[in-house]
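Much of what follows relies on a compact textual record of a protein's fold. The record below shows the convention in full:
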Amino acid sequence: MKGKLRAERDISASDEGSLAYLGSPSAFTPRALFLGALFSFFIGAGVPYASFYLQGSFMALGFSTVGAVFLLFFLTGLINPLLKSLHPGIGLHRREILLIYIMMVMASPLPSLFAAKFLVQVTIPFYYATPENEWRELILPYVPHWLMLDDPAILDSFYEGLGRGRPVPWSFWLPVILCWLPFVWALFLVMIAAMVILRKQWIVHERLIYPLVQVPLAMAQEGEEGERVNPFFKNPVMWIGFSIPALWGTLHGLHNYFPDVLPIAASADMFYMQLPLFNDTPPLHIVLRFNILGFFYFLKTEIAFSLWFFNLFAAALRGIFALLGVISQETLGAGHAVHDPILAHHSMGGMLVLVLAGLWMARKHLAAVFRKAFKGDPTVDDSDEIISYRAAVFMLLAGCLVLVGWLWMAGLPLWAAVALLLLALVLFVGFTRVVAEGGLSDGALPVIPAGILVSAVGSSALGPYGLVGLATTFMWTGNMRSFVMASCANGLKLAEELGGNKRPLFWAMVLALVVSLASAVWMLLSVGYEAGALNMRMGGTGTAHRAGFDFIERLLRTPTEPYYWGWFHTGVGAVVMSLLMWVRWRFIGWPLHPLGYPIGPIWIMDALWFNMFLAWLIKVVVLKYGGVGLYRRTRPFFFGLILGNVVPGGIFLIVDHFTGMVGNIIFYG
């Protein structure tokens, strides 16, 4: 067992080992910043065009930011070698490439997972108000006039379309957008500040692996001086791994054009089956997704084991609850990634303990951060950070004040605004930890803070203004399958390779966010007014788009009191998570990592668990019979699995643009 643990530590050190090229030029060159902004524009405008207008593959749905990976593939595999062939001096070097990629990663959460939600949420209560749902009487009187767009003609043309060539009515949209900007930027800056404060604890002290950065680090490597082609692209093992999903993705894309010629590739998933477990409960899904298999091969075996184990454990619990008739009558609202209310509370309790225990472990580091921020302690070194600790702490505090003030202006009581923000930060920080340590390339916050808050205090305590304000928070907390905090965490890990002064990276990140958000809003409104949001995924009539306002409609009709069983189940989740952490700290070799417990019941894990199991099994066999050496030799194969899953989807989006094909989905994220 000691030998296995030592091998795991060696692997972790290898995975995150820094290649410090002391003589390399700075990453922050004008061309790198320009290209980073340009690619951020491609992501900001291209992702909504691909996802909503073409309704093709999802290029920015999860934390793996596949659109950024696709662009990096062509930058390092085609564009940069061409530049070097023209003249060796004009090719991009490693640090510039990583800076460009970091900017693309920062740009990725905004187009479809933030901007699209924002545009829909600020219009929903007025557009969907009908005599039947009585929203005009129940909801609209409590909506602040500056918070939403209420012009019927503008809303009708956005949802139903005006046709090609008609201009976007910017004069109606800009006032609402400008009113929301303080909140939006406070949220982004709070997320960045929190990651700056925790960076050294996670990367240096705890040495988290950050599995999602392994592929870009490999693609950005440099060969011998004068070598034009990146050695990564010369590895035959990588191309063998690449060819398997790339062949299937290509066949599936062609099937959508020629269904009679290629009937075998009708599904985007190469293999899918369902196994029934219990009566009246969802079946067990067995789905093969090559990119998930690739990412989870880079995890420590104990984490990979725990992720799939706790998902099956949650499935078994759901079945047992159904057999015993244990059913919660509570309604937390739509949009939670954990659908069962009992397990949702368990996840919330687990997340609370995960974050609080992490802060306790980081107490010495946090004390040093605050000494540097408030007293200027010269013994605390923050020169490696993208902003000083003083700037990070004050940015965090000022941003939280803006967010609380905004929520209060939107209608929430002050205490409720503080409570909701604390719940949201716990979930964001906890899930970012899951991404950094557990490599979860696709997932979502297990619960929505608004639902937990209503469960804890009852809707009567919030009043109608508070409930309407609460509905607007679904925009930035509901079904968040990627967000700025997680992107920043991965970006800061990649920044370890940049060397030298990293302070310009903060402004590069902000630039990427500005470009991506602006280009996404422009593209979303353009295609919305051309084709109609109802005709695209963006403005569908499904409950996910209306979850917040449907939720408060029920609460306004039937007010609720505190749900004390919810407190109980949250406590149960906290106790179980605490026991798992204690046992892991107390007994060396304990096989269950607590990271898997709070995310085990998430519905997305139901589709991913088999890939986690398979990756864990393969890695266990490789380490047992071939050791660390064989593991390192097999890593390129799994790099190839990830890239081979991504590249055909991006290529077919380009083809679909010119052919007019709609709905050609090669992968889901």
In short: Strands lie at 271-275, 284-288. Residues 1-23 have pLDDT under 50 and may be disordered. The two ends are 36 Å apart (CA to CA).
